[in-house]
Amino acid sequence: MAIILGIESSCDESAAALIGSDRSILAHRLAGQEDAHRPYGGVVPEIAARAHVQVLTPLIEAALNDAGLTLDDVDAVAATAGPGLIGGVMVGLVTAKALAMAAGKPLIAVNHLEGHALSPRLADSSLEFPYLLLLVSGGHCQILRVDGVGQYRRLATTIDDAAGEAFDKTAKILGLGYPGGPRVEALAKTGDARAVPLPRPLLGSAEPHFSFAGLKSAVLRAAQSGNYRPEDIAASFQAAVVDCLIDRLEKAIAQGGPASHLVVAGGVAANGAIRSALEALAARHDMGFVAPPLWLCTDNAAMIGWAGAERFALGLTDPLDIAARPRWPLDPAAEAARGAGVKA
Ligand code: KG4
Ligand code: ZN
């Protein structure tokens, strides 16, 4: 069995994990920074980078301790090398390089999105390639066909906001604070999803792309009108997101070629309403449905360690001079979505 040290620092979670190639999770540690960012209502890159500097090394030591291992027992060091907030990514990658060099171990530069994309295979040993992946996080909303490690075909992306971003902005509009997604979901449970008429952007359009900016503006108008209860806005917003995700996935399933499983990953996959709608969609199409456990959906180092293990098994290691990348698409060949704004 190979043992991989995984390191994550691309946004506001510092994390370290030790993962076995047999899918054993020998240790995983995580330090969130919510308190540091809360006064600003969102992640402040400079604060995030400084916090990673402070906590990453102690976290790695704690993870090694938890597993009863030393760096000598580790076969490779894997760290997120992008995409993400570049200051934080550099902290994690430089830490990984230093450890790899000091211990004479190979370095594996992991794409954070590949970490999310392969995380369902850590949770479920029976999940084989190819599968259809809905990747929904704070920064990304994509449908990908996963044909193998490093083999991704992007079928759809968002032309403006990511789904998680829409949840976070809705939370801000409703005064729920940060982080928004879980709070909107909790409030939505007590509301009426039919109470507020909200748009379903791009519903029925020919390509399976997403758009959430218009929905966000409609939420703002509904809130400002004073005509609706916050819980009804939250429930109606969440229902609109579900409708968009399902409609766009229907299109992608029709266009993407056969895949035996529908898989969801990324922080928004923690949402219960979205998970059950996806499960029903998969059942309608005779596809299996796989979602990682909640702790593995949001950012963590176990998924980075696991992506490292998958790459290590294929002999895919990286030179120590590899650079951190703020942008790093999983499918570099994918064209920009028509009508897309500045976001990749
Ligand atoms: O994958 P992740 O931890 O970080 C990124 O790489 O973006 O995803 C974080 C996103 C945030 O936008 C957060 O609001 C959203 O996932 N999220 C949720 C839920 N839990 C987290 N969105 C909806 N419902 C949830 N329960
Ligand atoms: Zn993420």
Automatic annotation (TrEMBL):
Cofactors named for this entry: Fe(2+)
Localisation per UniProt entry: Cytoplasm
Binding residue positions for Fe cation: 112, 116, 299
Reactions this protein catalyses: L-threonylcarbamoyladenylate + adenosine(37) in tRNA = N(6)-L-threonylcarbamoyladenosine(37) in tRNA + AMP + H(+)
Transmembrane segments: none
Gene3D superfamilies assigned: 3.30.420.40
InterPro entries: ATPase_NBD, Gcp-like_dom, KAE1/TsaD, TsaD
Keywords from the UniProt entry: Acyltransferase, Cytoplasm, Iron, Metal-binding, Transferase, tRNA processing
Positions annotated to bind substrate: 135-139, 168, 181, 185, 271
Function: Required for the formation of a threonylcarbamoyl group on adenosine at position 37 (t(6)A37) in tRNAs that read codons beginning with adenine. Is involved in the transfer of the threonylcarbamoyl moiety of threonylcarbamoyl-AMP (TC-AMP) to the N6 group of A37, together with TsaE and TsaB. TsaD likely plays a direct catalytic role in this reaction.
Family from the record: Belongs to the KAE1 / TsaD family.
Protein name: tRNA N6-adenosine threonylcarbamoyltransferase
Species per Swiss-Prot/TrEMBL record: Blastomonas aquatica
